[in-house]
Design a protein that fits this description.
With 437 residues, the chain is of the alpha+beta class. The protein is 62% helix and 11% strand.
Amino acid sequence: MRVIQRWFTSLILCVSFEVIAQEQPKIQEPKIIDCSSFNIPSYPLTGKILRLDDAIMRASLQAPVIQIAAWEIANKENDTVTAGLRPNPSFNLDIGPGGDGACANNNNCSAGSVSYSIEQEFELGGKRCARVAAADGLEQVSFFDYQIAIRNVQFNVISAYLKVYAIQLKLCLAEEHRRIAENVQEVVSAKVSAGKLPSLQESKAKVAVAATKIHAARTKRQYENAKKQLAVLMGSVDVDFECVDYLFYQVREPIAFETIASRLIEHPSVIKKDAEIDAGYSAISLARANAVPDLTVEAGVKQDSWKGDEFAFFINFSIPIPISDRNQGNIAKAYSQIYQTEYQRQQLLLDLESQLHSDYQDMTSAYDVIIDYKDQVLVEAMDAFEQIQTRFEQGKHDYLEVLDTQRSMFTAQEQYVDYLLEYHLKQAELKRLVTNW
């Protein structure tokens, strides 16, 4: 029952990375800046459109790694149930010769004894409670493994989704580049027919068109592969969507690094280490409890046929004497494991902060480039191409200048998409590291 409740609790959180932060308020939403460019065509949203929330939900429900983590919680819950069980009693039956050996030299003698007894082990030192606490601690650790699995799957889906959208834009650019190259080829062919240009220029124009067609075909294959990878992350072998849609041109002003770095302690991996430390203290209690010997009680009745079928009741007590083995090795090991886990937690925080700082620097760098690129490089590249194309049609520029400015404009547009993709990927990575952002 508990694993089902936890599964539904985590399912509600599948559309965001906010899986464990509950006390601190959400970081203030930064200013959103529209960085859309009219120089880059939009992909026609036709057919079945896969939304990001739907992709995350499907992956959270069908991804095998999440199901594996969920069943691990069930396994740990079963271990907790097993840990709470008391030892079973045992029934003993002992059939043997008479108590004084009267039949030792007489093979025809039927005299003997039969004893019946019930034996029960009684756990002392609070072993059962300590065992349950230790198993419950491991169960809590497995739940954080489940949350980490959800977070990683969500990040992978978001990254794959962003890459599909970026290649989707590049496919539009490739088709637009092909169309422009074909238009330029028509102008060149007309000038060659009119004797204004040599035939060599027409051959160059045909080569340029062929190159754009090859580039468009390669981008199309990349697009199909990217969609296939996204479908696999959602637990499907077939691509059942035509395109994706995302607010790709919306970027947010960077938040101060100190603000987001303070949330690293809420990362599931850090909280998992805290749970492992708590489980370690439970392991110490269990090791100390196991140092206490258990009491075994046997009670029964014995019948001696050689004494006229007399019955005698008996009761036996036994308990080990802890002279040399007092479980001191396991107790020391439990303490050392706690110390080890505490240092692992410290190292984990250092690694997370290092990764956060690196991703933050990459994100802010991409943000600065996007702002400058949109207002300067893209506009200038587009203006230069339009001017060169107009003057070429008027016979004022050479075709090589048209090819050069056309190539520069195409490169600038694709680089702009790459910068936007890098920014969103780093944003997704920061959200994976920082909870409730």
